[in-house]
Amino acid sequence: MFLIVIIKILFVVGVLLTFAALLTWVERKQSAVTQDRVGANRVQILGIRALGLFHIITDALKMFIKEDYVPEKVNKFLHFIAPLFPFFSALAVFAVIPFGSPIKIGGRIVELSIARLDSGLIYLFALSSLAVLGPVIAGWASHEKYALLGGMRAAAQMISYEIALGVSIIGVIMVYNTLDISLIVEKQGELLFGFLPKWGIFVQPLAFLLFLPAIIAENKRIPFDLPEGESEIVAGYFTEYSAMRWGMFFLAEFVEVAVVAAVLTTLFFGGWQFPYLFDDGFHFFGVWHLPYWLIVIIRILTFFAKWIFGIWFLQQVRWTFPRFRYDQLMKLGWKIILPWGLINIALTAIVIMLING
Amino acid sequence: MNNIYYLWLIPFFPLVGFIINGLFGKKLPKPVIHWVANVAVWSSFTVAVIAFFDLLKVVPGQRILVDPVYRWIFTGGLAIDIKFLLDPLSAVMILVVTGVGALIHVYSIGYMHDDPSYYRYFAYLNLFIFSMSILVLASNIVLMFVGWEGVGLCSYLLIGFWFEDEEKAYAGRKAFITNRIGDFGFILGILLMLVIFKTLDFVEINKILIYHGETLSVTALTLIAIFLFIGATGKSAQIPLYVWLPDAMAGPTPVSALIHAATMVTAGVYMIGRLNLLYAHAPVAMAIVAAVAGATAFFAATMAITQNDIKKVLAYSTVSQLGYMFMAMGVGAFAAGIFHLMTHAFFKALLFLGSGSVIHAMSGIQDMRQMGGLKKYMPVTYWTFLTATLAISGIPPFAGFFSKDEIIWSSFASSRGGVVLWAIGVITAIITAFYMFRLVYMTFHGENRSPEEVKHHIHESPAVMTIPMVILAILSVIGGWVGVSPVIGKLFGVENSNIFEEFLHPVFAHAHIHFHHYSEATEWWFMAISVGGALLGILIAFYLYIKRTDLPRKIALKVWPLYKLLFNKYYVDEIYYYLFIHPIYLISLLFLWRFTDVYVIDGVGVNGSAKSVRFTSRILKYWQNGDAQVYIFSFVLGVVLVLGYLLLA
Amino acid sequence: MLATMLIYIFGALAIFSGLMMILYRNPIHSALWFGLVLFSLAGIYALMQAHFLALIQILVYVGAITVLIVYVIALLNFDQRDLVGKVTILKGIAVIVAAILFIELLFYVGGLYVKGIAPPPEFGKAANIGLATLTRYLFPFEVISILLLVAVVGGVYIAKKD
Amino acid sequence: MPYNGILIMAVILFIIGITGVMVRRNIFIMLMSIELILNAANLVFIAFARAFADPAGQVIALLSITLAAAEVGVGLGIFVAIRRTHNTVNVDEINLLKH
Q: Between B282 and which of A161, B225, B440, B521 could a Cys-Cys bridge form, CB atoms 3.0 to 4.6 Å apart?
């Protein structure tokens, strides 16, 4: 039992870190593609460039061997632990994301998520809310005004959008009638009107429209990356960070991108559910029976496909939209997403009441 | 015990009148003021009459109607209701109060017409009627006490009505303080009643006395009766607390007629009548009542002889007549006492109204030596006054004869009376006839001795004053015919001629007082003696003040010490002054003021408490220092102490 | 057995963090220790089959309350010398009084022996608590929601400039 | 379940909270100490909820957490206001109650 859990943890952390590492390359490569450039392709090992994939290694090397400069006045301890909060919170959140349907091994059902929690969604929010501590403490510990301003901005933004996030997701909870994320994914395998997969995006389109900007803002990604800005507050809360500590923040951000993509996939795109694929095979104008192991593999691959698409989508958003202004950001959070989230709750409640009689 | 749900209207109307006149009277025109007041009291009278006839519809044995208005005090085993009670006794009383009160309200319109405080006068008068009807209708002694105090207050306010005059304000205070002394006894009586009976309701108390009367301690009952009688001596001007009544003549004359002759001063008599069973169970108390009453009747009458102020004479006469009533109560002739109360209300009110009419005509002069020969100027006043005088003197067939004769006879015939009381009664009757006719002769007969400027203005009073007087005069004549004693009734061939006593009989039926039986001839003889005495008094007065007008002075000189003693009212006021008032004044000045008030109350009490507060706060301010943590600390300390105590306990 | 051991470990952690919280001079450090206390308590809750409560503890206490405290401390950003409190006799007495209170409470608690019964497996799950909250405890729930609304309005009003 | 141990833990946490409120002069630490007291109570609630298999304890703990959130919201608002008007958060200098 423990062994399985440890294997799952290692698998998830490995995949996440790999994704995060890859993202450092994807970030640059995708921007190059979007902006019609060649981009990150200089690093070569023995003449092999491999689309610039070796940049990942050189980046890491650079970060580790750079001087870890800590300004004299900072609070050493807090300065040290601040980057850990977002990083570990992002990693921990993934624990409740199911990346495949439960599999049977030797008469024992193994969930393909690290932990199947009764209140998984709450867990998701609880752990992700810890990430706020990172920017605040980093900003404060740096003992520097830009860092502090950046930290304040980041924290205010994240606290505000946590509420928007929470309110927008309640509709989904109501529709699937559970807080268990695995169960939510399982219920998304059902069909609506006999042909439409019961994915979150179909049953809760308004929630999706609210959730997407909210979670990007929560992640402090463009177009909501207000905590930093060369022209106003330099690099925000990590102005005073360098080398691998700075790298931790960035790694955390990329892990967060991955996690956000996974959460979006899980809640709104059916998670590991392949349309019309049930436990005994395809149900598409008749039943196409498939072996069980094949179905499991298809589902895991489906999840990864969706996940990667989500990551691509988020990155595309990053390189497509212009930045908001800070007041616009706050207005969006408090005056648009929050009220519409409440409206969504009311509408969902009415519809559920009508359907259930 | 049936209910009668409109009884509360009787006190209610005067209360409304009082509120209207008291609050807004200053702004209202005079006609509105007296219309409001009169309508209020006449409405009460009407309701009283209706209630009286409703009472008559009930079978005689069950004539107790109650109006439970409101549960006033409810605590532990004690329940005191605002509840009104109508039985024959209170029916008679309420009719007298509202009836005479209504007539006097009318009279007041004329008498007070140019007074600047018109509205105040009528407001007080309505308040008085309100309080008096509460007193009369009260079904328990606490509510009665409310009315009792209310009438005391009205009496004080009305005696001191012209409070700009220091002497009149003093008279008001005197009345009030004297009454307070009596009330002290009354309150003790109430408390003792509560201890003995565990209830204060008259009906309940009577039930207890009827069924368990023998088991109760006679000493306790006697004490209650005496305490209550002390209250009555204050309110009804008996020895030793009568001194306020003559001074109370400082008030407007209609007030004297209403409050200090007809109604309020009879409250004591009424109270004894209400609690007749209690008194019947306390023979010692009754003996004291009779003795005090006899003494009062006699001494007040002697004091009246030498008075020259027309109202003072009437005042002493009132005291004396109240003595008669108490005498009746004391010997157990309750019905006779109440009967005399009623007839006295008629003729004494009339006498006061007549004297008011005279004073009104004489532009305020009250000294009889400046009057004389007013008969030809004001005939209506004269004839009505004469009627009342004959009534008070006990000349048949006027009302006073029947009631007074019954009292005198009862004082002889009752097992609780005796020949001494009877003798006092007769002698007092002679003196009464004498001083009343002295008054009539000095005022209405002979030459006019008034100053020139007054002489021109002497005139008969307006109809608004004379009509009530005429009505009262008629009542003074026929008012006694409801209580004709059986021997006279037999003479006219009327069976059960004493309707009045029969009507009241259920109230007093349980107070078993034994009356000796004498032959009719004896009764006739006694009647003849008292009537003869009255005639004798009249003759003496006629001889001294019409025939030989020089004689009174000579007699006075001859018995100068006695005359001076009588003229100065036996120096009672002076004795009281030196015996009680001055020592109390000195104690108050030296001990209560200079020491108790200045040092104890101001020094230790008022300033001392302030100083101790300042001292304590000087220490406490280090605690109350605005520091929230110190507060939290004290809070925790408290928790620690409480928990520690609980652990150890 | 494992659960009991973990409870003790978490409890020790909570107590240690609590002590650190009140001993540290710097409020941000205190706040982080406070967060650790809350986390340990969440762990104890989870071990006592109050999973939902454990998560709520983290979500609300750590994720919102602690974060807000840290945020406001950073926002106000006062000088370090502000934080130096005076050492007074009262503080010494306060510690002594607290110690006495501790001993007294130990007397009370020491006298208790709670056996406890095994709750059903669905005990402490969100659905179970939700059911209890919205049926038997609906009134306190409504009251607390009004309180929360009032607190939101009041907090905004108080903190608002002028 | 070691209920007695948990109760003693709660007592210790409570005492730490009480001491913190009384001794520390920094309002933030005072606020956190108060929260600690609340948490000690919550711990007892949840322990007894488990012991008697009654969800009431958990519901009350839930309500208590809500209460704490409201309290912190208002409390921090007050601190911000105090900081703005008095330019300090040291309770030694905040003694408006005194005047």
A: B225
